[in-house]
From TrEMBL:
Signal sequence bounds: 1-23
Protein name: Alpha/beta hydrolase
AB hydrolase-1 domain span: 55-299
Keyword Signal included in the entry's annotation: yes
Length: 311
């Protein structure tokens, strides 16, 4: 079967996929280890496991690296899988600065170096992880062999100005001492807003998942630093425009949008930053692809990563 025909068959599977079970927290396989790696004034909590070509998984807001446990378990059979918590999130440390995505990409490069993984890799990212991933790929164009980017646009590129004017993204400018006071002790309520309003169906995201992340975002400094991720978007936009001035990314890119979120149009946004972009929409999913439709999302990622190298 030719590659286009394989993808047509795969899309047919997505269209008729059964409804998922409620997403709950899956743990990383026992073969994975965790390290707290000092980098650039921070300590990055990093899980690593498996053997083979490297795959780097980057999470976003409302999640931590824990979101990737099911995918990491599948990939580890024939890949080395690296799963950090971003600076100030999850079990990583909480420095006061460094939340622009160019700096966070430097964190990731330092983590990989500390692990002795200075060669090529595949990149899989979601939400704010997309922004860190783009900064990493733009500064390591010869290392990133392919990129799966999921359901969040890049600051300063494409139709970003329209995105920030959308009423659903009011949280981009929700940060500061009083905003932190409003959320303190109400982290679960705040996160529920994202799970409920940005999903295809709030029932897709189960109680265990919600409670797990609420506890992590209730840790000292966690919301402050999560807000710092958004506060850095204006600087990220400046940095991204400089990256783009050096040329679009050339590696193959799979842009996955949730049907009830960015959908197929998400690829149009990523095409402002990359030349070889394939579009995929996951049926009956909003923004939270790994929680709402984990099997079809993972199947798409695995199939794309398994394709032969093109350069």
């Amino acid at each position: 079967m030719t590659r286009p025909n394989r993808w047509l068959a795969f899309l047919a599977v997505l269209l008729f996929a059964p409804a998922p079970a409620l997403a709950e927290i899956e743990t990383f396989p026992p073969s994975f280890s965790a390290r707290d790696i000092p980098v650039n004034g921070a300590t990055i909590h990093t899980r690593i496991g498996g053997h083979g070509p490297v795959v780097l998984l980057l999470h976003g807001f409302g999640d931590t690296g824990d979101m990737w446990a099911p995918l990491a378990g599948r990939l580890a059979a024939d890949h080395t899988v690296v799963v950090p918590d971003l600076r100030g999130m999850g079990l990583s440390s909480h420095p006061e600065t460094g939340y622009d995505k160019k700096s966070e990409a430097g964190d990731i490069a330092a983590v990989l170096h500390a692990l002795g993984l200075d060669g090529s890799l595949a990149l899989v990212t979601h939400d704010i992880g997309n922004m860190v991933g783009y900064a990493f790929a733009a500064q390591n164009r010869d290392r990133v062999t392919r990129w799966v980017v999921m359901d969040a646009p890049l600051p300063g590129l494409g139709n970003w100005d329209s995105v920030v004017k959308d009423q659903r993204t009011w949280h981009f400018d929700f940060f500061g001492p009083d905003e932190e006071r409003l959320v303190a002790g109400r982290e679960r309520i705040y996160l529920d807003r994202f799970y409920n309003e940005l999903s295809a169906d709030p029932k897709h995201i189960g109680e265990e998942t919600r409670a797990h992340y609420a506890a992590l975002y209730a840790r000292p400094q966690a919301i402050h630093d999560a807000f710092a991720q958004f506060a850095a978007f204006r600087q990220d936009a400046v940095d991204n425009q400089k990256f783009l001035a050096e040329g679009k990314l050339a590696m193959p890119v799979l842009a996955i949008g949730g049907e009830k979120s960015f959908g197929l149009g998400f690829a149009n946004e990523i095409a402002f930053a990359a030349t070889d972009v394939r579009a995929l929409s996951i049926a009956d999913s909003g923004h939270w692809l790994m929680e709402e439709q984990p099997k079809v999302t993972m199947d798409a990622i695995m199939a794309f990563i398994a394709e032969p190298a093109t350069r």
